[in-house]
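Submission checklist for the structure archive. All mandatory fields must be present; incomplete records are returned to the submitter.

[x] Identifier: NagC family transcriptional regulator
[x] Organism: Aeriscardovia aeriphila
[x] Residue count: 397
[x] Sequence attached
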Amino acid sequence: MPSGFFGSHKSLREANKAKLLDSLYKFGAMTQVELAELTGLSAGTISTLVRQMADEGELTTSNTIRNGRRATQVELARQEGVSIGLTISTRQLHLVILDFTRASLGEHTLPLAFGHKPDDTLHRAMRLINETLTTIGAQPDEIKAIGVGLSAPVNYREKTIAIPGILPGWEGIDVITPLTKVFHVPVFVDNDSNFAALCEARVGVAAGKKNFIYVGSSYSGVGAGIISHGLLMRGVTGMAGEIGHIQVDPLGDICACGNRGCLNTVVNERRLVSLLSITHGNLTLDSLVDKAIEGDPGCRRVISDAAVRIGTVTANLCISIDPELVVVGGTLARAKEVFTDPFAEALRRLLFPNALTPIEVVPARYLETSPARGAAIYALEHLDSTVHSPGFLQGKK
C-alpha cells in the first residue's frame, strides 16, 4: 500500500468534515439526507462522518420525521459560552446574547438621547450586558466574543466611524479597547447594515443565497449591506452600501455627511414625522409605524412615499450589483406591506423589464434585530477560523 495513502485518506476526511461543519454552522440543524444534498457528499460518507463526530462530541443527533419518513437530524454540539451583539444608533442601543448554536438567550433595547456621549453609552452597554447575563443565569467569563454594529459608515481598517457627523460625537472613538479591557475577549466593529446582511444570510430569509442586498431603515436614515458571490462587499474603506448618502435632490437639505439632498435627508425620522406634525402632533418613527399598522391613512401615506424614495435608489444599486434578492428590514419595514409593496413596485419599475430572473423583495426574518444578531454571529464565526469557515461573508480586508 502506498505510504501516502493514510495521509491522503486523512486529508480527504478533514476536507469532508470541513464541508459538513461549514454547512451546519451556516444553516443550522438538518437531516443527514439534507447534508448530503448540500455538501455533495454521498449518504454513506455523511453517515460515517456524523457517527464519528458524534462520538468525538462535535455533533449531536436525534430522530425526526421529514416528508412522513424517519430521519436523523444532525446539529452542532452545544458549547459553553456566549457571544454578545450590540448595535448603537442615534436613538437606541440594542443587545442580543447568543449561544454557540446561535439561539437567542436574551435581548434588550435601551433608548438613547440624541447626541449621547460615547463614554456614557459604552458604560450603559457594559452594565446592560452584565444585567442580562445575570437574568439568563450566565457569568461574564462565559463571554467569548463581542460584535458592535454602528449606525454610520465604518472604516473597516481603522474600526472607527469614517464620516464625521452621522453618529454625532463618535468620530474617531475607539469602541474596541473599553470593551476588551472589561470583558477580556475579542471585539469586532462594523457597520450595522453589514451585520444585518450577515444575520439574514446565516439564519434569516437569505440563507443559502450568494447574491443579495439588505436594505435597512432606522431613525437616521437608510443603509445597505451587499453580499456578492457569498462575500460581504465592503469596498476599499468599508463604505460600500451607504445608499443613504446618494443624492436624490440637488437643491435639498444639507445632509449630516456634508453633501446636499442625500436620501437620508428625506427619509430620516425627523423629516418623516414633521410631515404629520400639524395633523398628528409629536410623533416618533415608532409611533408613526404603529399608527400606519393600525390603518391611519396619513401615516400610511408617509411610509409609502418613503418606500418609493428608498426603492428608487435601491434600483440603481441593483442595476450595478445584479442580486437575486432584496431583503428589507429596520423600523419602516415593520409596517409590512405598507412599506414593502410600494418599495417593490418602485424597484421593479426601474429595473430591466425583460430580466430573465426578476429580483424578489422579502421582509427580513428579524426586522429590527438583524444588526445585533449579525454582530453576535460575526463574533462567533471569528473565534476559531479552523472550525468556523473564515471565507464566507468576510469580504476583503
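[x] Structure attached
Curator remark: Residues 5-76 form a domain with the Arc Repressor Mutant, subunit A fold (CATH 1.10.10.10). The chain has 13 helices and 15 strands.
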